[in-house]
Fold this protein.
Amino acid sequence: MSELSIDKPLIGISLGDYNGIGPEVILKALEGNQLAKLCTPIVYGSLRVLNQYRNLLEMKDWSLHGIQRPEQANHKLTNVITCWHDHQTEIQPGKITPEAGQASLSSLKRAVEDLKAGKIHAIVTGPINKDNIQSAEFKFPGHTEFLAEAFGAQEGLMFMVSGDLRVGVLSGHIPVNQVAAQVTAEKLTAKIEQMLQSLKGDFGIKKPRLAVLGLNPHAGENGLLGNEEIDVINPVLKTFKEKGNLVFGPFPADGFFAAGTYKQYDAVLAMYHDQGLIPFKTLAFNEELISRQAFLLSEHLLIMEQLTILQEKIRLSRAHFYKQFIWPVMFRNTGQKARLSIKMHWSASRNNQKVSILQNQENQDIIIELIIK
């Protein structure tokens, strides 16, 4: 990344599907340019589309600043870079169209290009429709996999965080019938190393305690219900323990969360997507923060999980979206990669006052994606 002023970071925001909830959430969060006190927002999308929504939402007393490059950003305003020929674009809220899918890809690609070129500090991504975005250029199940390839990642980690509840998953967006094949010593070792690295470096936990769930019902019942625990998970955990790591398991997944056992550990590694996300979202649906992390080579990105709910059924809240912008403001270090030191109540060494004000807002309902680089 080229040298950028860190006094007030430039935060890129990819619009997402312009017929979805992204534009409305973004506009309601940025209305009145209040976030310009913390950062310089640059929306990658369409000035025409956002103005259509601004009129629809009766935000006529507030204007957007159109630019062509991040260097032209006005640090007191909300800036917009148009990423496709939008002269004939008309919004159709709630409708899935191929045009909106390709527009969301154009916005995402341009934002990533500028991040890689060092023109912005971070990206917040609005929610995409994983179906209509598919094309020859986008053959991924979601943002995470696209970003991992864009930044040359060898391995990614989906890491969900809500206060002191932290859940990672071994395998992500794959069919259930492919999960068992993903439970290998190499992959499990990589995921545990990533989680331990994050717990130490990002959360400031010097000696983290990590719980690992089993793949099979009742953690295999000593081979009666499956051998992955015996053949793969136990040997890997033994190796980590021999190196002095506090790694425990494999635990039967069914009662682990219900009994509150997760509270004894700093994080939990589940074997597959729903094994980790169902209990996580049940316990943390209306609380704090949901995050995903993709570790990319020597650096790492932090990506916020998106909540896909029908637009007409959702209550939009500014407070949660505000937090997405505060992250890169709080945790950037001069000349170093961003460090995360977040606790249950967003206690941090800097900008603490701003954060405590925001966490007193009403419950957060919208969850958008964030990248810190």
Summary: Residues 98-116 form the longest helix (19 residues). The mean pLDDT is 78. DSSP finds eleven helices and 13 strands in the chain.
